[in-house]
Specification:
This protein has five helices and no strands. The chain is mainly α and 129 residues long. It has one domain. Helix 1 packs parallel to helix 3, helix 1 runs antiparallel to helix 4 and helix 3 runs antiparallel to helix 5.
Length: 129
């Protein structure tokens, strides 16, 4: 989850670079950081989350519970955000970014909101479904 919160923050810094003599070097540094964060931390963590989450849902018998199904939808949305962020990494790597730092500041909050809702569902396990 930390990587999901950090990658958009890297995008904010990367998109904020002011053209100049040091911008190209800084951009290359951000590209390496973004790629490593995605490939070494985010993607393996997402895969582990899905594998262990599905196993836990099955073994606990909660797979039929409404709260878990709602959580599943939110985790699916988080996985979609992951894929979208991966595309942004490729765009930055190819110098195709067209968005400004303010866009990424807003996007930085989406994983946070999803995480809060996911944790609430897991902790409270509401029975209104």
């Amino acid at each position: 989850m930390a990587a999901m919160l950090y990658l958009p923050r890297l995008f904010v810094y990367h998109a904020s670079l002011v053209p100049g003599p040091h911008a190209a070097a800084q951009s290359e540094t951000f590209k390496v950081m973004e790629r490593r964060l995605l490939k070494a931390i985010m993607t393996p963590a997402m895969i582990a989350t899905w594998v262990f989450g599905l196993i836990l849902a099955w073994m606990s018998g909660y797979y039929a519970a409404g709260w878990l199904q709602a959580k599943f939808v939110l985790v699916l949305a988080m996985s979609g955000i992951h894929g979208w962020l991966a595309r942004m990494v490729r765009d930055f790597a190819a110098d195709r970014n067209t968005r400004g730092h303010k866009f990424y500041r807003v996007i930085n909050e989406v994983p946070t909101l999803l995480m809060i809702l996911i944790v609430i569902l897991a902790a409270v396990k509401p029975s209104f479904w």
